[in-house]
Amino acid sequence: MKKFGLLILAAAYFAGCSGSVDTTVLTSQEHYNYAFELFTDEDYQDAIREFQSILLQYPGSAVNDDAQYHLGLTYFNREEYLLAAYEFSKLIRDIPASTYVPEAQYMLAESYYQLSPNYQLDQAYTKKAIQEFQAFLDFFPANPKVEEAEQKIQQLNEKLARKEFGSARIYEKMDYTNAAIKYYQNVAETYHDTPFAADALYRKIQLLISKNKIPEALTDINTYLLKYTDNSNYKEVLNLKGELIGDTNE
Which pTM value belongs to this model? Predict the structure, then answer.
């Protein structure tokens, strides 16, 4: 009975071996087709091995950019986003004439987008994602994914604005008024197209008034009244302008 069990295990082992592919007898195209089949079957670990093998064995071949792009995509599908970003950037750098370059540029940005953390954490990957999405927009303005890239830039900018606004609020609560003013100013200027910009300028105006910097406050009030007519604080800011002008005329 024990011998019979061993025979079954041996048969299973050799059956598995018989199903493997000897890639040394394949052409570069056949090897790529095999690797791509592994990729579509979501056999990602083996697909990575075969794509890497193709890139080593057939440098400069017709399937080189196919393998390079799908190597990046395989890492992306495995949620190994830093490795994916590296492979996409390698394609863009080393094979600039490839038809995969627009998609690789988008996926490079998308890899960093996936790495972008909660707004309270370090935002280096968020900034990198914005940079790469912007490069995609600059180089491929007619690409079908332009609108999606623009939406993601907006979303990432809102995350950065939220972090900066939160820092300003902390400084304000700690009575570090000058630092708070600086951070609010940065939100209002750098992230002017986010929902945080109006509130940042409003808080900055309040702090300027508290420090009796009336001319600077009036300048920001005028900017606020021009840009944020629908904001909930608009009427209050308008009244503030009247009060400050009245005070300066006395």
Answer: 0.85
